[in-house]
Amino acid sequence: MASAELQGKYQKLAQEYSKLRAQNQVLKKGVVDEQANSAALKEQLKMKDQSLRKLQQEMDSLTFRNLQLAKRVELLQDELALSEPRGKKNKKSGESSSQLSQEQKSVFDEDLQKKIEENERLHIQFFEADEQHKHVEAELRSRLATLETEAAQHQAVVDGLTRKYMETIEKLQNDKAKLEVKSQTLEKEAKECRLRTEECQLQLKTLHEDLSGRLEESLSIINEKVPFNDTKYSQYNALNVPLHNRRHQLKMRDIAGQALAFVQDLVTALLNFHTYTEQRIQIFPVDSAIDTISPLNQKFSQYLHENASYVRPLEEGMLHLFESITEDTVTVLETTVKLKTFSEHLTSYICFLRKILPYQLKSLEEECESSLCTSALRARNLELSQDMKKMTAVFEKLQTYIALLALPSTEPDGLLRTNYSSVLTNVGAALHGFHDVMKDISKHYSQKAAIEHELPTATQKLITTNDCILSSVVALTNGAGKIASFFSNNLDYFIASLSYGPKAASGFISPLSAECMLQYKKKAAAYMKSLRKVPDVESREDLIKNHYMARIVELTSQLQLADSKSVHFYAECRALSKRLALAEKSKEALTEEMKLASQNISRLQDELTTTKRSYEDQLSMMSDHLCSMNETLSKQREEIDTLKMSSKGNSKKNKSR
User: Fold this and answer.
1) CA nearest 42: which of 621, 570, 624?
2) Continuous segment of H or E residues that includes residue 73
3) What pLDDT, on the 0 to 100 scale, is given for residue 26?
4) Greatest mean pLDDT among 164-178, 198-212, 356-370
5) Phi first, then psi: what are they for 455, rounded to 5°?
6) Span 369-390, mean pLDDT?
């Protein structure tokens, strides 16, 4: 039982391991996909970094350009400041300086306009880069959150698998400890059995030597005292008295008693059926008290009046058969002589059924030709005609098989012993057929009676007679069902009891030899009764002898039992050792696979951690770049605003001048 449970646990563990391996493959595939996604994200990040560097370079160039413009503006302002005093000295110089100032202002305005347009373009590019950077950052952060969630789920699965593996290993270790304890217990029991086996072998050897000596002594006595072996020839062996089986005889007498009761019920039901049928003919379709019935029904009634002389002998024949089966006889087919008498009475009743069948059919036809007969009643009469034919045929079949069973007690060559079982089986089938026919008769006759009761001319005498016939048919149906079930239930016993006969022979040779055997049996019984009056000394010796013989048989059985147990224990121990070795191998393989799985899990965790760190570093670098770009742009805005303010101040001064 423990080995079966362990094997079941191993099978479950193997199934779980296969599931875990499949899950591990899925996890590996997921990690590979994540690595590919990580590489793609790294490539995207690299491209974004390159674009940021390009923008940074452009910003640097713009910053340098702005510085140059600022220096040029300062230079222009200085020149303008120097040119103002000169304008006061002469008008010509003033006009020339004013013309120069206008030219410088137009150049400055053009440069400033270009700078403003370039600054707007840079602002637009920076805004687009900032929006793209925010979008990429949001995507990366959502991807990172998804990866972290999947990593947490994978970690939970890995933790569950690890916990399950540890529980399984712990269970296997416990089972191994239990098996080791059981193996030690079985080894102890095997040692004890071996010791007991050696003791029993010694006892068996002693007994064998003793019995061998007694066998030689008995053989010498047989060779000297026995004139011939009467079991060698079947003709002589049939005269030997078989072992008396009192239980068999009591069983057969009980079965015969039950069969007698069933036959008595059938006989009563048949008598009632034929008698009430005779009464019905006298009142339907023509009442004999009012008018004369047809000659056909008169003859039919005359034959039915004789039914008791054919039915009663069936009960008498079965009673004689029951009385012939006693405790002191040997009941087999060869010794049941009274079965032939019962078969003859059944044959006589079959002749009676054959004689009344044509009249019964003609009587039903006469009822159909009557003016009172309806179509439904005519259909029921036709069905009853077929049922009566079937009933007669079933009785003929039953009589044929019973006649065959009666042959071994009168004509030994009439029925081979190998055909006994098939004949008995056919008897059971015929009884069931008789029951089926009686059920059909009961059904159809009840319908016929119900229709006749509804006729306006139906008298109370007809209704009462129909009820009596219907009750007798129901009794026949029940009796047939009981005897069919009884025979089927005891069929195996009947077939098995056919082998009951003389020792080492196929059976009784002839009824004469069976009769002689019964006479010898009576003489042997009388002789055994006389032997019951021998001296006390001999009886005491017999008791001692019987005691020792019983003790020898007991020791021999114990020795055989010990041998079988030792062989069983040895085989069980060997099977357990093999299972234990297989369990050890399976455990080692599972341990190695668990180690590999743990290594893979740790490696995947390391890769996931590294990827996460790299993503975080790249995000921080991008944030730093964006901050620096924001600072640079803010400075440029301030410089541009300063330039605008200075240019406005210069323009106001020029206008005032």
Assistant:
1) 621
2) helix 2-89
3) 73
4) 356-370
5) -70, 145
6) 91
- The closest alpha carbon to 622, from 164, 222, 7, 56, belongs to 56
Measured distance CA(231)–CA(240) in Å, rounded: 8
Distant-in-sequence contacts of 31-37, Cβ < 8 A, 24+ apart: 31/604, 31/607, 31/608, 34/147, 34/150, 34/608, 34/611, 35/607, 35/611, 37/143
User: SS3 for 242?
Assistant: coil
Joined together, the tokens standing for residue 250 give: 């009591």
Phi then psi for residue 510, to 5 deg, are -150, 165
Rounded Cα–Cα distance for residues 574 and 638 (Å)? 96
Q: Is the dihedral of CA 418, 423, 429, 435 positive or negative?
A: negative
d(C-alpha 556, C-alpha 560), whole Å: 6
CB 168 within 8 A of CB 19: no
**Cβ–Cβ contacts within 10 Å for residue 570, how many?**
14
Under DSSP, the state recorded for 244 is P
Angle between helix 338-369 and helix 308-324 axes, rounded to 10 deg: 150
Structure tokens, 360: 């019964």
CA quadruple 230, 233, 234, 239: dihedral, nearest 10: -20
The residues, any chain, with a CB within 8 Å of residue 390's CB and separated by 6 or more, are 437, 440
Percentages helix, strand, coil for the chain, rounded to the nearest 5? Answer: 90, 0, 10
**CA–CA gap between residue 303 and residue 298 (Å, rounded):** 9
Long-range CB contacts (within 8 A, 24+) of 468-471: 468/272, 468/276, 468/279, 469/273, 469/276, 469/277, 469/280, 469/445, 470/442, 470/445, 470/446, 471/272
Residue 625: per-residue pLDDT = 66
Average pLDDT value for residue range 462-483: 94
Backbone angles phi, psi at 335, to 5 degrees: -105, -10
CB 327 within 8 A of CB 253: yes
- The predicted model gives 394-418 an average pLDDT of 86
Alpha-carbon span 212 to 478, nearest angstrom? 62
Task: Answer whether 415's CB lies under 8 Å from 387's CB.
Answer: no
Q: How far apart are CA 610 and CA 376, in angstroms?
A: 100
Contacts of 91 (CB under 8 A, 6+ apart): none
Q: How many whole angstroms separate alpha carbon 607 and alpha carbon 35? A: 9
Confidence class for position 266, pLDDT limits 50, 70, 90: very high
pTM for the whole structure: 0.47
Tokens 């009666």 correspond to what residue?
Answer: 406
Q: What number is the average pLDDT over the span 145-154?
A: 79
Q: Does residue 285 have a cis bond before it (omega within 30 degrees)?
A: yes
Highest mean pLDDT out of 100-109, 119-128, 345-354, 539-548: 345-354
| Token output for 60 | 């640097």
Could you give the CA distance from residue 188 to residue 210 in angstroms, rounded to a whole number? 33
**Choice between 234 and 572, residue whose per-residue pLDDT is larger:** 572
Rounded mean pLDDT of 243-269?
Answer: 89
